[in-house]
């Protein structure tokens, strides 16, 4: 069950135009309220939250020297220079 501060926070977020989600109390499956739709608040039966923003996965290049085994890491998006004796692999963070 939500406390008063959480109730006020979610109602204010709705007033500010943020996406609200709801679920039956104790359930883990969240459903979006349609934007522009006024929720019928029932804090006894449902929990509400501001919809979390999707996090973008991080990506990095790992460049390994095939002779020495030494490696370096470079962020994706910038120039990556790979020497003849190096191999580069792209790694992406898994978000779930």
Secondary-structure blueprint of this entry?
Blueprint: H1 4-15, E1 20-24, E2 31-32, E3 46-50, E4 59-65, E5 71-75, E6 86-92
Antiparallel strand pairs: 1-2, 1-3, 4-5, 4-6
Characteristic terms for this protein:
96 residues, mainly beta, 32% strand, elongated
Structure overview:
By secondary structure, the protein is mainly beta. It folds into two domains: 4-50, no CATH class; 59-92, no CATH class. Helix content is 12%, strand content 32%. It contains one helix and six strands; from the N terminus they run αββββββ. It has one helix at 4-15, and strands at residues 20-24, 31-32, 46-50, 59-65, 71-75, 86-92. The strands form two sheets. It has a three-stranded antiparallel beta sheet with strand order 2-1-3, with helices on one face. A three-stranded antiparallel beta sheet has the order 5-4-6, with no helix packed on it. Strand 1 (20-24) and strand 2 (31-32) form a beta hairpin. The longest helix is centred in the N-terminal third of the chain and has 12 residues, at 4-15. The radius of gyration is 23 Å and the shape is elongated.
């Amino acid at each position: 069950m939500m406390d008063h501060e959480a109730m006020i926070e979610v109602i204010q977020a709705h007033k500010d135009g943020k996406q609200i989600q709801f679920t039956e109390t104790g359930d883990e499956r969240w459903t979006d309220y349609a934007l522009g739709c006024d929720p019928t608040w029932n804090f006894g039966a449902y929990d509400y939250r501001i919809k979390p923003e999707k996090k973008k996965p991080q990506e990095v290049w790992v460049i390994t020297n095939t002779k020495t085994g030494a490696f370096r890491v470079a962020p994706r998006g910038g120039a990556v220079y790979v020497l003849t004796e190096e191999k580069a692999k792209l790694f992406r963070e898994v978000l779930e």
